């Protein structure tokens, strides 16, 4: 009887390591055979040019995606034809979870940069998840992280001050970079100032002034799209400080 050659776990991990797909494909506790099953359904290195779409609003849920490199934004369009950016996706983060409820996408995913994407057919992923112990739990964790990012976005929008919104945005982005194994205090913004302004509900001039003000205060250093956090403690305080409540209106009664 011919022995089955051992699965090269190191090679599989190296293939996904650059984009942190291992968060989905390499959860703890799955053995070599199960890993082969999961690895077999991943379609690797689908190129997407800057401005290209992975899917559009109304498209049926066919796959979820992970950028091996590059970044994406999720965009919806209002009845007036205006774009609203709902989120950004860094390398290694799942794209396409908006369709899980209705099985149709509610927005479109647009490449911010030229990207290479891993495509995971959703029906096959569900089938493998039903057979691979631990993968269902891992998928729930990844979905929970996506919900957490949505919550962070809401937290940015309810802030009245631009400094707080931008600080919370940079803080959250740094934490996400750290989660995929990249420096959290020095990173390149894949999105434009205009995209950031749209996402935060601010004017682009306000975003530019706020970046300048945070730099003048010695909290960050900005060179083009490169951001270096100089004073992490001050950025964290600014990101999470609670605004003082507005003073109660004085009674006009005599």
UniProtKB/TrEMBL annotation:
Domain Cyclic nucleotide-binding: 26-110
Major site of localization recorded for this protein: cytoplasm
Example of a GO cellular component annotation carried by this entry: cytosol
Pfam family, one: HTH_Crp_2
SMART domains: cNMP (SM00100), HTH_CRP (SM00419)
InterPro entries on file: cNMP-bd_dom, cNMP-bd_dom_sf, Env_Response_Regulators, HTH_CRP, RmlC-like_jellyroll, Tscrpt_reg_HTH_Crp-type_CS, WH-like_DNA-bd_sf, WH_DNA-bd_sf
Keyword Transcription: yes
Keyword Repeat belongs to the record: no
Signal peptide bounds: none
Keyword terms, alphabetized: Activator, Allosteric enzyme, c-di-GMP, DNA-binding, Repressor, Transcription, Transcription regulation, Virulence
Annotated compartments: Cytoplasm
Record note on quaternary structure: Homodimer.
Protein's name in the database: CRP-like protein Clp
Native source organism of the sequence: Vulcaniibacterium thermophilum
């Amino acid at each position: 009887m011919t022995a089955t050659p051992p699965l090269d776990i190191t090679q599989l991990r190296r293939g996904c390591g650059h984009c942190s797909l291992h968060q989905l494909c390499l959860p703890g506790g799955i053995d070599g055979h199960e890993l082969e099953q999961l690895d077999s359904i991943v379609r690797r290195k689908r190129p997407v040019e800057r401005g290209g779409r992975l899917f559009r609003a109304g498209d049926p849920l066919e796959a979820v995606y992970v950028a091996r490199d590059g970044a994406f934004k999720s965009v919806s369009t209002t009845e007036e034809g205006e774009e609203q950016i709902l989120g950004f996706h860094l390398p290694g983060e799942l794209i396409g979870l908006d369709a899980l409820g209705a099985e149709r996408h509610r927005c479109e995913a647009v490449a911010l940069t030229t990207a290479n994407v891993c495509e995971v057919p959703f029906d096959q992923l569900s089938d493998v998840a039903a057979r691979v112990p631990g993968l269902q739990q891992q998928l729930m964790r990844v979905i929970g992280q996506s919900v957490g990012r949505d919550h962070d976005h809401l937290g940015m929008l309810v802030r009245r001050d631009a400094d707080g919104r931008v600080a919370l945005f940079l803080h959250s982005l740094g934490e996400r970079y750290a989660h995929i194994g990249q420096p959290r205090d020095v990173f390149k913004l894949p999105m434009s100032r205009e995209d950031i302004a749209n996402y935060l509900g601010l004017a682009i001039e306000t975003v530019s002034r706020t970046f300048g003000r945070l730099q003048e205060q010695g909290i960050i250093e900005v060179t083009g799209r490169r951001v270096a956090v100089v004073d992490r403690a001050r950025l964290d305080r600014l990101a999470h400080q609670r605004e003082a409540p507005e003073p109660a209106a004085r009674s006009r009664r005599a």
